[in-house]
Amino acid sequence: MPDAIVAEGLVKHYGPNVRALDGLDLTVPEGTVTALLGPNGAGKTTTVRVLTTLLIPDAGSATVAGIDVLARPRALRSRIGASGQYAAVDEYLTGFENLEMVGRLYHMGTRRSKERARELLERFRLSDAADRPVRGYSGGMRRRLDLAGALVANPPVLFLDEPTTGLDPRARLDLWDVIEELVAGGTTLLLTTQYMEEADRLADAIAVIDRGQVIARGTADQLKSMVGGDRIELTVDHVDNLAVAQRALTPLADGEIHLEPGLRRVVVPVSAGSQALVDAIGRLTDEGVKIHDVGLRRPSLDDVFLSLTGHEAEEAEDEDAEYQSKGDRPAEAPAAARETESIEVVEGKSR
Length: 351
Ligand code: ATP
Prior knowledge:
Blueprint (H helix, E strand, L loop, with lengths): L2 E12 L3 E12 L3 E5 L6 H8 L7 E6 L2 E2 L4 H5 L2 E4 L11 H11 L4 H14 L15 H13 L5 E5 L7 H16 L3 E6 L2 H7 L2 E6 L2 E6 L1 H7 L4 E6 L4 H9 L8 E3 L4 E5 L3 H14 L4 E7 L3 H9 L33 E2 L7
Parallel strand pairs: 3-8, 3-9, 6-7, 7-8, 10-15
Antiparallel strand pairs: 1-2, 1-4, 4-5, 9-10, 11-13, 11-14, 12-13
């Protein structure tokens, strides 16, 4: 399958001190969804801005939808849609007028622009609010309208920069449904996010980005298996029962059992999934050990991030929120020089 997005060796500095992209490589096969996952300041937005022709890199090359981003930016613009962290909608226009205006900007003609606006409002469940000014819309409705705006020209490749940041859980779920419908139709999507569950739910492949480089890539499951398999975590009623539990559970363990006496906790690596959990409960019940809490835990993408980068995924730098546009941001101290091996796990699965 051809790649809809190819970026090679992208480098971008902001001023003398900030190296926002540090040789970033990325490929997104056509018709698939890749999530760029990384903490604040990792370089996600900068990547999207380069790939959507808004920013010229200092080095490297990129092709989107078969078009060279640097050589033919104008040609590319009609082939992509982009929707950002700050919904780019006009507050004083209605939802309908916003979308119609985008159609006209694409020279779609009055009639077609109106038709397309109605179609998209319907699809994004905004028909009832179509004739209300956007200033009365909720955050979720604005994001849906912004996303609709990115689709007016029916682009084969779509970029969504943190599409659900700042939304409440209900609005986030709602937007995920909309995005899923969209990609089911074959659109190639590059999505940036700080949310593990968003990447987990929407993406075929995840590229973990840190300090301007892709440091690992794979499906959510592949990345998780890099940091180990399933484990049973249980808390027993009394510290004296820890040894009993250890003995009873040894036949189920796929590795060393860890005891945490202070928490009366036993952690058992297992390979038999939920069957191991059933067996463990049976064995402890047979031994008369009371269990306070028990569960099968899979490594989360948080664990992956921590193990790959040595720091948590969400290191919120709230000062960023104060700047309306990224262009207003102050320069930051350069990231500490680090040696990170790039780990190519596997290409993303195709739809
Ligand atoms: P976030 O999750 O906060 O959006 P990000 O992963 O998208 O973060 P970028 O916005 O690409 O990261 O920023 C990468 C680095 O470049 C950061 O150190 C950031 O502060 C810096 N940066 C971004 N835009 C500018 C700018 N216009 N001027 C100066 N520095 C900038």
